[in-house]
Amino acid sequence: MQHKAVVLGTNYYIGLSTIRCLGSEGIHTVAADYSDAGTYGATSKYCSEQLILPHYKKDTEHFINTLIAYATQQEHKPVLIPCHDSYLEVIDAHLDTLKQHYLLPNMDQGLYTKVMDKEKLHQLAVEEGVRVPETVYLNDESFTEKVEQTIQFPCLVKPVDSPTFVSVFRQKLFKVYDMEELNDAIKKAKDAELEVIIQRIIPGADDHMHTFDAYLNHNSKITHWTTCQKFRQYPINFGASVFTVQKHIPELYDLGAHFLENIGYKGFAEIEFKKDETTGEFYLIEINARITNFNHMLYDIGLNFPYIMYRELIGEPLEPKAVTQTTNRAFWYAQEDLLAIKEYIKTGQLSVKEVSKSFFRPKTGAVWNRHDPKPAWVYSRQLVRKALKRVTRRS
Hints:
With 395 residues, the chain is an alpha/beta fold. It has helices at 13-23, 60-72, 85-93, 95-98, 111-116, 118-127, 143-151, 162-169, 179-191, 250-262, 295-300, 305-313, 334-346, 352-358, 374-394; strands at 5-8, 29-33, 49-52, 79-82, 135-137, 155-159, 174-176, 196-200, 209-216, 222-234, 240-246, 267-275, 282-288, 321-322, 330-332, 363-365. Strands 9, 10, 11, 12, 13, 14, 15 and 16 form an eight-stranded mixed sheet that branches. A four-stranded parallel sheet has the order 3-2-1-4. A four-stranded antiparallel sheet has the order 5-8-6-7, with helices on both faces.
């Protein structure tokens, strides 16, 4: 293929998986990041080139200009694939400029950021008739009354800007149990100059979390899709997927396709839904507008989303495909899953027997791949070094 693929964010397994998915198809892949420290994705045998960029947030203008300079040196427009929310936010802010130099989904500038913004996503979902958890805003009249009567405790204090919130607090949200804790959480967010919203917790364990994973072409029509069920997350209850299984759930297509097509979305998207254990109704929780955590599991069941995107962007789209049978294949991020299992058992949410049963199915690792073992060894060395540093500091 003549067009290179520039993969932004290779110090995490999403970028690694994207490089593997494209490199295995013969694509020239470029591992791009602001540092070469910890970028184990760049050590993959499927990585053709490494590009060190200025920091996307500390020096945004230089970051964008360096990306453009790289593209102008190429004979053909590269495909640009951000693999982290923070990269996607910056790309979206400069989308119209970058489209002149890179192949990107022909999305309206600002829509990526809009679906990542919890408040704006909530409003979009309401407009499209998709259920979302009941939400109260800080400037609502009768705020306290609405929280106590409509939301009720415990409830969630969720950030409008998730990537920044996570970078500040090292967690996705605050769970609070009374008004005092709620006011404290709001103050913490205000002190960090971050906006938050208050949401009801949809009842149900972590295995009530589901996803609709899809690709939408330049006409905002779904061409490829499947559905999955989460089993475990880390941190537990409100974290990222560490053990997720592909499972066909037709209702999620009806909800997800309707929503994404109606808002004019283009490219890859993953909608997270939670099924209310008391009513059986699905609620839209959030949208991942970049390649998903369990991308390589989707590759193993026949949906190579990075390559699907690449082929459409170079004008050679693949035939539409949906995985509408349950393959029972699992994504497994072993390191964090072991930490999650400890907490699930400690809090009585899972038993040893339930955890053991979950492993009796084919699995795709987050980092380990027998055809491309080097990143796993590099990643393991990084973990050992971090552990030794912690031991040294304690002593």
